[in-house]
Write a structure and sequence with these properties.
Blueprint: H1 11-24, H2 28-81, H3 83-100
Helix pairs in contact: 1-2, 2-3
Length: 105
């Protein structure tokens, strides 16, 4: 395998690596190193994707919090103008929520 490391592969996988190494005219160790590096890069990308998903979820929660705050302010302002303004504002908020898929119906 070469100097510096040893790797244990299942027999079938070892045969595939050996065949590919012969086809490319490279030592099998080079192919294995590339496979290991590819695996490390894949794991790093998966970790980054998981981090991004977590950040997106946090941003969604923050956005929903801001949206609720803005709705509350809008309802309070409408309430100060009278019952009809309040009902109109409630209907508008409901319409927006439906468009965003936040409520059924």
């Amino acid at each position: 395998m070469g100097k510096g490391f040893s790797v244990s592969l299942p027999l079938e996988e070892a045969a595939i690596v050996e065949k590919e190494a012969n086809r490319l005219g490279l030592p099998a160790a080079s192919i294995i190193r590339l496979m290991m590096r590819d695996g490390q890069q894949r794991r790093e990308l998966e970790r980054q994707v998981d981090d991004l998903k977590a950040r997106m979820e946090l941003l969604q929660v923050q956005f929903q919090g801001f949206q609720i705050l803005l709705e509350t302010i809008a309802l309070e302002q409408a309430n100060a103008r009278g019952p009809q303004a309040l009902e109109n504002r409630k209907a508008l908020i409901q319409k927006i929520r439906k468009r965003q898929g936040l409520v059924e119906g």
